[in-house]
Amino acid sequence: MKIDLNFPPFQQDLFSLDKTQLTAFVKSVKIINKMDLSQVRQSSGLNLEKIKNLKTSNGKTLYSIRMSKSFRAVICIEDDFIRFISLHPDHESAYK
Fold first, then answer.
1. What does the pLDDT average to over 47-74?
2. Which phi and psi (to 5°) does residue 68 adopt?
3. Phi, psi of 87 (to 5 degrees)
4. How far is CA 35 from the centre of its chain?
5. Closest residue by Cα to residue 41 from 28, 53, 32
6. Is 47 left (phi over 0), alpha (psi -120 to 50) or beta?
7. What pLDDT score was predicted for residue 92?
8. Which residues fall within 8 angstroms of residue 92, CB to CB, at 6 or more apart?
9. Which residue(s) pair with 74 in the sheet?
């Protein structure tokens, strides 16, 4: 997968992570980068979940993906790109 980290609201979330969270994020992104979409979907460690009540402004599906035991990210999948939309250190806010 190709990783897109250029969404401005995501970058604000990224720069506000503490050292432990940032380390976990980088570790997860390195793993995702070596996978194809099928592997990402099947990975129990990443625990990719479709967010039923949220879509992008152009109607694309949003997903929640585990970055660590304590936090998740919201992503959009387009072709072979994973675009990071937001980070949620409080875990449950990823679904709101």
1. 90
2. -160, 180
3. -115, 145
4. 14
5. 32
6. left
7. 52
8. none
9. 64, 86
Q: How far apart are CA 50 and CA 17, in angstroms?
A: 24
Number of CB atoms found within 10 A of residue 60's CB: 13
Farthest CA pair distance, the chain: 34
CB 82 within 8 A of CB 75: yes
Q: What is the pLDDT of residues 44-53, one digit of tens each?
A: 999 999 998 8
Supply the pTM of this predicted model.
0.87
DSSP 90: T
Return the amino acid letter for 5: L
DSSP string, 10-47: HHHHHHT--HHHHHHHHHHHHHHHTS-HHHHHH-TTTT
Q: How many CB atoms lie within 10 A of CB 75?
A: 27
